[in-house]
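Structure (tokenized):
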């Protein structure tokens, strides 16, 4: 099953063809609020490139390191970098992956201070 390009919801969001409440973007990734937040802060970080799962990242591709750096920026933006947050990737059905375009979750219980 391939859902790259036109049918993939996260490709659509990354390309501005579907709406999302974006909190960060650069040439490699876009980050936006999860449509169904599991906690008061629930942000998804998505590569612009369609990569199906964590397993499918080419060995010479450093997108996951960049996603980690963006997660830190977002945690700082929401004031939870010091108090703490969760950063994780679900992989395949057994790992809870529902959307088959690589994405990382940044989840925190509450905003500590306004972002700066
Ligand atoms: P997964 O279980 O694949 O790791 O996480 C997929 C996440 O994407 C879920 O938390 C779900 O709420 C979120 N999601 C699915 N479709 C959309 C959408 O169209 N827009 C946004 N903002 N989030 C979505
Ligand atoms: Zn995609």
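Design, position by position:
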């Amino acid at each position: 099953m391939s859902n790259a390009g036109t049918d993939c919801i996260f490709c659509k969001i990354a390309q501005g063809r579907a709406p999302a409440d974006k909190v960060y973007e650069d040439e490699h990734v876009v980050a936006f609020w999860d449509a169904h937040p599991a906690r008061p802060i629930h942000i998804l970080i998505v590569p612009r490139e369609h990569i199906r799962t964590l397993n499918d990242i080419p060995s010479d591709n450093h997108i996951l390191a960049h996603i980690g750096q963006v997660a830190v920026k977002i945690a700082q933006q929401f004031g939870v970098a010091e108090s703490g947050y969760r950063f994780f990737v679900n992989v395949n059905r057994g790992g809870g992956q529902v959307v088959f375009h690589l994405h990382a979750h940044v989840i925190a219980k509450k905003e500590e201070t306004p972002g700066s």
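Reviewer-requested clarification: The chain has two helices and five strands. The radius of gyration is 14 Å.
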